[in-house]
Amino acid sequence: MNSTFGERFRLSVFGESHGDCVGVVIDGLPAGFSIDFDAVKAELARRAPGNSPNATSRRESDNFIVMSGLFNDRTTGAPLMALCRNENTRSHDYEPQFPRPGHADVVAAQKYGGHNDYRGGGHFSGRLTAPIVFVGAIAKQILFERYRIEINAEIASIHGETDAAKFDEIIQAAKARGDSVGGVIECRARNIPVGWGDPIFHGIESDVAAVMFAIPAVKGVEFGDGFGFADKFGSEVSDGIGFDPNGNMVFTANHNGGINGGITNGGELKFRVAIKPTPTISLPQKTVDLRTNEAVTHSFTGRHDPCIVPRAVPVVEAGLAICLMEYL
Predict the structure, then answer these.
(1) Which of 43, 154, 231, 249 is deepest in the core (most CB within 10 A)?
(2) Answer CATH for 4-321 from 3.30.420.270, 3.30.70.120, 3.60.150.10, 3.40.50.460
(3) Alpha-helix residue ranges (DSSP H) falling in the chain
């Protein structure tokens, strides 16, 4: 399984949802950087399960232990390895003979000859976003120290509703029915220098999208106005060019989300991701019984988020920070 991203700033995630631990190896951290681990823990707490009635009841402390790459409280420049023990697994909830619709159960079993860890989705689980947030939390600190880059994401909609005051009600209603809902997250980054990214295959859009699609449940990514461009005239989405009071060249609009030709233009980088509803629900679903090779209707048990969107917000921020470290 290829679970590595990046060239100049490279991370490899490891572990399974119900295995002994999850973790990451980071290559490319600058030497001599002092990591604020309180800030790292705060980011992990935003993603952690069991902290909200709208999330799974599985509780994990997400306490990462750094095993290498630190000396005298500073990065050494060598690979940094950190791991986090899984403390609250309930593997008996998972029945390998009934693959879950919408999950990787079927394709993973077929690709890896049935040797994949099916418990909680194994290596395909959202549990693997914990190491991503750990790396992203460090990356955000470095980006801010070097360039004052700020990254913030927020929920744009839940189940099509854009009024944040109604989000909890929608999620709880779905939970009460044994169902789930998805939504949209919008992410913005400020103070990115002009010129990060490359044309064709390694544009900022290409690299950011690659990281976003590594987040389980992400099914769509759009930059700037995204699919809204398809319904507009060119005159309506023109990012005019002018000068600010200090004589700096600026854009008068930002329909393109701060990117032209795959390269940052100095404006605010803006994109959205679509998060699908959590596939595991307690309502009956069509699947197969692999023991009898029969099509069946089955109800699945276990602890699952009725909506993964709130916990995905810090993961999206982390993913963008990881991608930007490539250009630092």
Answers:
(1) 43
(2) 3.60.150.10
(3) 37-47, 105-111, 129-147, 167-176, 204-212, 309-325
